[in-house]
Amino acid sequence: MTARESHAALRPARPEEAAALSALCLRSKAVWGYDAAFLQACRGELTLSAPEITAGGVLVAERDGRAAGVARLGVAPGGEAEILLLFVEPARLGHGIGRRLFAALERMAKDAGCSRLVAVADPGAEGFYLRMGMERAGEEASGSIPGRRLPKLEKRL
User: Fold this and answer.
1) Taking Cα atoms as reference points, which of 95, 151, 101 lies closest to residue 127?
2) Does the model's pTM come out above 0.85?
3) Which domains are delineated in the chain?
4) N or C: which end of the chain has fewer CB within 10 A?
5) How confident is the model over 79-121, as pLDDT tens digits?
6) Of residues 43, 50, 8, the one with CA closest to residue 27
């Protein structure tokens, strides 16, 4: 862990943070240069609700008392876990926060007995997931943009 990474503490998200964490996801998505209409189309998929947070599996990376990143893991029957969200505050990109969140989700998946971790990622984020040891496993349809295909990545645990 680098000195920069050591300043971000990971903790479970709190239900009252749902709106702020959803806004963080949209700000982070915008770094890929998408216009307002595209981001509006993605809003539903990038919105966290208080009940989703209460159900568990949502982590916050906090630095200087503020959310610097958010990640959500879903665990499915059959030994598969899926990274449902992993976003870093744009000003904190390159500080190791995404790496820490990914490692925490990977540990959570292993602790849940999962043998595989998957992610359907924005094309701009594919390189990050490949650096985390995931491999390209095909494509899936976007849940937000009709006709758009997204890289599917996976990692054996």
Assistant:
1) 151
2) yes
3) 5-156 (3.40.630.30)
4) N
5) 899 999 999 999 999 999 999 999 999 999 999 999 999 999 9
6) 43
